C-alpha cells in the first residue's frame, strides 16, 4: 500500500488522490460499523472516534494523518505485510499464502482459522493427507476427529446454492457480533430461529443455542470451573478437589446439600493454549518477535522492551532471553460490576495478562489481552486474592521452568515456549492487597 502521499502538501493533488485511494481501500477492507462509519486517523481523532467517509476526508485534509499511525491496521492493512521476513523460503511462501487469504475478507479464511486453532501448518492444497510439514503438530485421536469435522463444516454451504459463506463462517461471525455488541443469550436464540425460518430449505445452521456453543467450543480455548469457599479461604483444587467443606472455616462447599450447587465458583481460563495460540496463529506469530527484530533502539521509551526493568530481566535470565519468542507478561486486575444497577453492589474481579512481545500498537489492545481468571463476588477478595491466584501461579511456574512445545507458524517449526511475569499493574487500593514478596517467591522471579 502506497503511503508516500501522507508526506505531500495536504492541498496537493498527490495528497488528494492518495487519500481517496486510502479511503476506498479502508471502507472495502477495514472494520466498518453498521452505520457505515470507521475510525478516523486524523491527528485530532487518533483512531478513537468513528466517522463517515466524508467526515474522515475533511478531518485528514484539515489536520493531517496521525504521524505515529504507520501501520493502518484499523483500515484494512495486514500486520504481517509490515515485517521483513527472517525465516526460510518455505515460511516465506506460507506467509505469502496467508497474506493472500487476508485480502479475501472476513470469514473467507475460516479454514486457516481452524488450522491455526489446531496448530496445523498451511499447505499448498486442502488435501490433508498430503501434509508432511510440522507433522508433530498434526492432531491425533479425538482432536483429529474434531479437526476434520471442523474442516468439513468450513466447506458446508450455509444453505443449498450459497457460495458466499459457509455455515462455520456465518456462525463464527454471528457469535462475534453477539460478544462485541453485548447481545443477550435470549436475543441470540431468537435471531438464530428467525434466520433458520428465513433462509431457504436445507439451512445448515444449528437448531438451537446449545448446539451453536457445542460447534464453536471445538475451536478450543475453553475454561474450567473451580469451586471456592464462600469466605475466600480456599479452592477445591487438586489435593482438595473432593472435599465437601472448607478446611479453614468449615463452611459448606455447596449452597444446598441436596442440589449440590457450589457456593462460589472461580472460572479459570488455561494459560498454555492461549500462549501457544499466539504462535500457532499465522496472524500473530511474526508480530511476537517485533520487540527483538523490528524495534528501533535509539534510547527512546516506546515499548516495555526499552525499559530498564526489561533489560535487567534479560541480564538476570540469559537462557530465557536467548529466544526472543519467549513471552514476557504483565498481570493486571481490577473490579467491575456486571450489573448496570447501582443498587446491586456485586463486584467481579477479572485477572488479565498482557503479552508484551507484541508491538506497542497491539500489546495493549483488548483483543490481545488474555483473560486468565474471573474471581467471583459479591465482594472484593481483598488480602485473600492469593487464594484465587493459585491456578495461575501453578501455570506460570510450569511455563517458566519447563515450557511447552509449540508450533511457530511463521517459521514452520516446533520450539519450546516459555513465559515469564515481569510485573503487576494495579491502582493503589488494589496494590494494598498484593502480597508482593510472597508472590515473587512463589513464582521464582527476580524483581
Automatic annotation (TrEMBL):
<feature type="domain" description="Transposase-associated">
    <location>
        <begin position="3"/>
        <end position="77"/>
    </location>
</feature>
<protein>
    <recommendedName>
        <fullName>Transposase-associated domain-containing protein</fullName>
    </recommendedName>
</protein>
<dbReference type="Pfam" id="PF02992">
    <property type="entry name" value="Transposase_21"/>
</dbReference>
<dbReference type="InterPro" id="IPR029480">
    <property type="entry name" value="Transpos_assoc"/>
</dbReference>
<dbReference type="Pfam" id="PF13963">
    <property type="entry name" value="Transpos_assoc"/>
</dbReference>
<dbReference type="InterPro" id="IPR004242">
    <property type="entry name" value="Transposase_21"/>
</dbReference>
